[in-house]
Amino acid sequence: MPEKKKFNIGNIVFWLSFSFFFFFILFNIAEDLFDKEGIAEKLFPLPEESPPIDTVFCDKIINRLEWTSYEGRNFKIEYVLCSNDFEDSQNFRNNMTVNNDIGEYYHAILTQDQMAMKKIVDAYRFIIRSQNLDYMEAAEMIVSSIQNIPYTLVINEPCPYRLGSTLFDGACKPLENMSGCCGNVMPIGCYSPLEYAANLTGDCDTRAVFAFSILKALNYNVAIIVSRMEGHAMIALNTPFIPENGDVSAYVSDQRLNKYYMWELTSVHPFGIISSQSNPETWEIVHK
Q1: Rg of the chain taking only CA atoms, in angstroms
Q2: What is the pLDDT of residue 240?
Q3: Which residues contact 113 (CB under 8 A, 6 or more apart)?
Q4: Which of 179, 154, 155, 176 has its CA nearest to residue 166?
Q5: What value does the mean pLDDT of the chain take?
Q6: Is 279 helix (H, G, I), strand (E, B) or coil?
Q7: Using an 8 Å Cβ cutoff, are 197 and 187 in contact?
């Protein structure tokens, strides 16, 4: 009996010591994990030097954007694409067929463009590091750059096209009155990320695919969500920071019940603010 008692005391000392050590480590990890700047350091490592303009011989497409984020912060970006990468992306998208799984289509065009999109990802990454943006500031900078580009309807039918009470009868380019229409875009009326980067023409799903490609490359836990009932697409973000000024019920859950908070891309709205007519229960995650 004395031997058994001695063994139990030793066990108690061991487990008390182990528990103290475990919670000490967990506290320090959690403190770093949920610190915005700590997450930013892990997501956006980049040398301080500005990424050079691509000097490889090719016909170049150069785009420059300037916009204002939600809190009045001004940003600008410049990136360079090779026209042959754009043509490869366009041809790949044109030759695709889509069954019932739209997520497979998104996955295919995202995978096709992944290498060529790195130049654009690095341009965004440079803004993040040079302006010392934290986790949510960086996401807001990226999403607001897309929201500030005028809406252009993209369909797999001819233009002009009437959607509800709105007639889209303008050219296939971003127009200030948002009447631009890009017709006969096969197979489903959705451009690839590289096509959007080159032409800046896109509606909800084209913008969602482009935003996903940038945010995913920067290690955000992001998803493309759609509502077949509303005929609409957005991105959604799984983040430890719930929307500060948005609707905390505006989220879609994955199979593990992780919450992905919705983010509208076709108008300038901060994280978590969606149309009052939109019902989160009609939305589903189709790619993440």
Answers
A1: 23
A2: 84
A3: 89, 192, 193, 194, 213
A4: 179
A5: 85
A6: coil
A7: no
Q: For residue range 226-239, list pLDDT tens digits in order.
A: 999 999 999 999 99
DSSP state of 69: -
218 vs 118: CA distance, rounded Å: 10
Distance CA 173, CA 176 (A): 10
Mean pLDDT to the nearest integer, 108-124: 96
Q: What is the pTM of this model?
A: 0.83
Domain boundaries, the chain: 60-220
Q: Cα–Cα–Cα angle for 52, 150, 278, nearest 5°?
A: 115
CA distance 278 to 15: 51
How far, in Å, CA of 287 to CA of 104, rounded?
Answer: 8
Strand 74-82 and strand 232-237: the pairing is unpaired
Distance between CA atoms of 139 and 236, rounded to whole angstroms? Answer: 11
Alpha helices for 148-264 (secondary structure H):
193-199, 204-217
